[in-house]
Amino acid sequence: MKQKTILPGQTIGILGGGQLGRMMAIAAKEMGYRVAVLDPTEDCPCAQVADTAIVAEYDDPEAAKKMAECADVVTYEFENVDVQTADYLQEHSYLPQGWHLLEITKDRLNEKAAIHEAGLPVVPYLPVRSQEELKAAIAEIGFPSVLKTTEGGYDGKGQYVLHSEKDLQEALPYIGKTPFELEKWLPFEKEISVIVVRSTTGETSVFPVAENIHRHNILHHTLVPARIPDALRKEATQHALHLAEALHLVGTLAVEMFVGTDGKVYVNETAPRPHNSGHFSINACDTSQFEQHIRAICGLPLGSTALLKPVIMVNILGEHVHPVLDKISLLSDAHLHLYGKDEARTGRKMGHLNILGDSVQDVIDKAERLG
Ligand code: ADP
Ligand code: MG
Question: Where do the structural domains in the chain lie, given as residue ranges?
Fold first, then answer.
């Protein structure tokens, strides 16, 4: 595929209209691009800020055709892009990211293998596609361990933490029906992530290492700079850059890692798109992950990712919306981002807050004052 420069005034097509698509679109609109989005929901978060909304299923061939007609470049905000749609757009439009990375990252086994082949450390894992493989995997990896579905899992869904044989009961009915992998449970100090962006021109840039704190398997907050030794910060950054090259990245890749209690950095999983743990960059970096992504797919020079100030990013889930809005008068220190979703269901990601301060402790204190 020939590399093109897409200039402001031209149209960026986005597959998927959730919050990631919305924030890509906002960045694109600021730069003067037009935006078209494909999503089955009419008033989805991205459609609210886009110029054109194609309301259709992701596998609707007519919708792919419409997208190819109006967009000068097409990108995606999620992993489960329909293969036929991607194929069509590759042929009839400009899809500089291709979809090879989607194919790798949507299957945990493929993804782990690719990370391992790139020479990066992963926790020991084995495939579990049958009762026999389960037995063999347990014999080799033992307990504690975690059984994960290879496809479709997110926010800890499709995972079974195993301390002993008896924890297997719940998963047993699915063994052999859905493919799993068994992973050794890694005692870790910290969960961190690095967002790396690579342009169609080959230029690469990397964001500051983020420290992620999960609650109930959902990202609760992110702290930057991560509270880890500089040597590990360097190691994590190198891992992300190395993976970007090894996977021939175009666009954005989020790399989730563990800092083990053994002092080593392990790669856990990746996502080939802007990521929740990179939302801090909207207010705390020179260039946000969303603007960088747009620059990358349009072939523009990448921006500086320098951290302007320490920051905490706090996710706002459905149950938090009213408590946060009740405290609106206390939010002078915080940048509120709500995604325009109408139904505030418990656990649904509705927005986030970025709070900047003079130190990591300062931003933690500020966040605590908000409750
Ligand atoms: P998801 O796609 O659901 O985000 P992850 O692999 O990131 O899946 O797992 C969710 C969370 O479970 C991680 O953020 C981490 O806290 C925990 N976890 C997953 N795998 C392991 C492991 N091998 N050792 C220790 N903790 C793990
Ligand atoms: Mg994860």
Answer: 11-95, 124-184, 188-370
pLDDT score for 115: 98
pLDDT at 157: 85
Would the CB of 186 count as within 6 Å of ligand 1?
yes
> Does the pLDDT of residue 156 top 90, yes or no?
no
Q: In this predicted model, what pLDDT tens digit does every residue of 61-96 receive, in sequence order?
A: 999 999 999 999 999 999 888 989 999 999 999 999
* Over residues 232-261, mean pLDDT: 98
The interface pTM score, or ipTM, of the predicted complex is 0.98
Burial class (CB in 10 A: 0-12, 13-18, 19+), 55: middle
Q: Which fold has domain 188-370?
A: D-amino Acid Aminotransferase; Chain A, domain 1 (3.30.470)
CA of 156 from ligand 1 middle (Å) equals 7
The CATH number given to 11-95 is: 3.40.50.20
CATH superfamily of domain region 124-184:
ATP-grasp fold, A domain (3.30.1490.20)
Ligand number with the minimum distance to the CA of 212: 1
Q: Tell me the best of 78, 107, 115, 146 to mutate to test the pocket of ligand 1, counting ligand atoms within 8 Å of each CB and taking the most.
A: 146
- Nearest C-alpha to atom 2 of ligand 1 is from which residue? 154
- Which residues pair with residue 266 across a beta bridge? 258
Tokens 């719940």 label which residue?
A: 170
